[in-house]
Amino acid sequence: QVRLVESGGGLVQPGGSLRLSCAASGLSFNINMMGWYRQAPGKQRELVARISSGGGSTNYADSVKGRFTISRDNAKNMVYLQMNSLKPEDTAVYYCNRYSSSWSTFGSWGQGTQVTVSS
What we know:
This protein has no helices and ten strands. It is mainly β.
């Protein structure tokens, strides 16, 4: 059974930084693309960033490009999201999961970690 545990969220002022972590188990981690997703109140979940199985290729939503960095450690089954220059519109619950083109149909998600950007 897939288990995803996100951590590292919190309250931060605009312009600040946070580093999110995700511990994954129950899947063949090192052969899966992974992604970070977020869901703001009243909005649909969206893909923020994704990373290839080996970590050599990344892709970002336009809204976070240049500010966020996704990385992974396959030896530890961990995925990270470094978030810099945070904006109030980044406020959301952040989730990690496998990535595929059908990610919006995934039925199994972790509890997420809340990120609030506010002065």
